[in-house]
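Hey, resending since the last one bounced:
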Amino acid sequence: MTAQRPILFTAFLLLTALASLPARGQSASLYGETLKTSCPLNCRDVTSKKPIGSYIDTLTDRAIGDVLRKMPGIDVSESGQIRYNNRPINKFYIEGLDLMGGRYGVAVNNVRARDISRVEVLENHQPIKALKDVEFSPDAAINLRLKDGAKGSLIATLSLGGGYKPWMWNGELALMLFTGNYQMMTTVKSNNSGDDVTTELTLFYDSFQKEYSPLSVHLPALPDTDRERYMDNLTHAVSINNIVRLGDSTDNDNTLNINAIYLHDRQRYNSSSLTTYYLPDGQPPLEIDETTSATELSDGTEFKLRYNLNNEKIYLNEQIAFGAEWNRNSGSVLSDGITGEHYLNDAISGGSRNIFFLDASISYKARKFEYILEGRNLLGTGTYNQRTYSDITNFQYLYRLRPLSVMFKIRFSLG
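The structure tokens again:
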């Protein structure tokens, strides 16, 4: 077999805006933990502060994810995804700022536990402040509070490892800076020792639908054991994250994000099996010897620029992103794709009781796949083209008559 080479480009523009009324707040205390509500009690918007001193083991807990796994109600996967009470969180903050923009697995696996003073769990967290009095959220958010010594200082961590026969290495570099108006986190990782660092680059929220190739190659059956025990990889991953407060050091409402990633990943798979069939009437046994191998090679990059204005009266979220991905897999399949999307979400307040929402989504996707199948002779070639267009508009009208809210929705599509 020869190699397949799928190429996928992605570009989109996201604009979200809405306006509403300010939320009301109150505070309480429960079992020695500080609790704060930011909306009426029926919203149950509660903040619980958990000092990490009673959970951290300074000898074994390197990253904050190691400590989070010990806290009641919190589950953390190997990729860094956090679930609270079996529900994925909807935001991950550091000092009240969404630095990672959805790829918070990088922070969970790299922020040093010893630099964190406490973890705040924001239950029933509504990320859009203008909707706190309007729309209930069943999901929680996590906010990390730093120790004073970690603020305003450049934090650098370096980890190196190596081996021989075969040559193996594992290197990680992380740089972090957290000041009053600016946060930065950059990580560079490279290894061929079976450490799957690609999962921490997963976008857990604020994501667009991922595109998958309709063509694939046959892979050997994977063993039921830890991936690091059998994975034959070559991985280079870079993550760059920046956020700037455009107001004073206490203003979390007006921010600008710049996030970028690059990933090179090669995975090799090899397996062999010998099956013996014992036949009746003294016939000699039938043996089938099968060997399967495959190689998956991918390169991907993404750049995202986002402006966010989020307060009790108005919400504006404008985001521009561009991404490209190249895949070359054994099985001789070539894929080229181009994707472009434009999203416009707008809501205008009509008074103290009336709120209007207008969500418009226009999407055009064009993808091309080429494949070549080879054995002892050329078996076949072909090209597959895929084009889709969609135009979906949602209109919502909300009438608020305390303590009830009535919402009317209209949805129509042209494609």
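The longest strand covers residues 286-310.

Sorry for the duplicate.
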